[in-house]
Structure formats: structure tokens, C-alpha cells
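Backbones bend. To wit:
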Amino acid sequence: MREAKNPDLWTYLSVALKEYDIPRSRLEEAIDSGRIKTKEVKNPHYRSGPSSRLVYRPDLVGILPELQRNAGEKVLREKRAQVARQVTEERRAKILRWVEELKVEVERFPDRDALTREAVEHYNCLWQDRGRDDKFADVNADPAFLERITVNFLRHEGTQYEERLVDIWGKVGAEEARERVKIRVLEAIGKAYPHLAEECVRQDPRVREQLPPPRDPPKLTEGKGPLDKWA
């Protein structure tokens, strides 16, 4: 009875949140656990509005240090998370800047035929090492196929593409950086060998998914099977 006669013992929940600067979730948790008594009263502003809830101030004050301590810990966790996100973003930006500043050099061959022969030989050795003698190419294969394996050959063997992938392995932003490294290398190959520029664009990961898959070249004679893409 004494509680009801003394209005100072009760305060609106919304007022308590602002007055004591505690998170609503922490206060609600204390109320739900029965540590703070509450009661419903008519809405002081709107007759037809929902009822308002009062909290028993002595209960609240009694556990206030705990609620505020928890609130402080929450703020600290949020600040730590924010710092971690900032550090992550800075590291990501750093690796991407490094990729953009890379100097990509492409091995030069005396002429187009010499380059094609090297690409074909590399393709055949690759599949022979895998025990696939049916994967065989020659310099008279479909031109689109030859351009594809030539770009792949230059990317893997005629540049430092593989070394750059090792450099970024395990770093923050590595997935995005890998894609950017490939784009930079393809752009360099296209500039060094203009006749391969169209194929370099086709292999660009930004547009590759928008294009139909490359067709296999026709079957070869003498029992050789279809030629597939090497990537």
C-alpha cells in the first residue's frame, strides 16, 4: 500500500531508460527475470492509446550498477568490433592498392607462330603429365581454341601471375585481389599481343559469366579426342 501512495517509487519505463542511460534489452531482461517489479497504467497522453508501464524505482536502483556495467561492456564490445571492421577495411584497401600498382611484364616472343607453338607444346605437356594423351593439340587447331590456350599459357608461364597469387594468399581481401590480379594480367597480355586482346576480354572475370561457354574444337583425326579448355 505504501508503494501506491508514493508516486516517486514508480517511474515510466521510457523515463528510466533515459534517466539512467541503460539499454532497453538489459532493463527488459531484468524485468522478465522478476528482479524489477512493474505495473500497467493508463496512457497519460492518449485515452485510447496502449497502456504504459511503470517500473519500481527501488528495484531498479538496487541493480543499477550491474545494468550500467553491462551497458558499458556492450559499448566496449561495439567499439572493438568497429575498430576491427576498420582495420579489416584498411587491410583490404591496402592489398587492392598494391594490386593496382603492380607492374605486369609479359614475356615477348619473336613472332605469333613461335608463341603459338610454345602454347601448344605447353598444353600437350600439361595433359600428358596428367596421363591424358587424348588431349592433344597442334598449330592447325581451331583459331579460337589456339587463342584461348595461348592466353592461358602467357598468363601462367609468361607473367608473374602465379607468384602474385602466392603473395596475396591468406591476406584480407585476397579473393577480390585475386580477381584484380587476373584482370591486370589479362589487360597486359592484350596490350602486348593485340591479336589476343579479344580473348583477354572474354576471359575477364567481370564479363566471363555473361558469355556462353567456349566451344570445343572439332575432333582430330588419327584417334585424337576433342580438345578442351585448359585454365
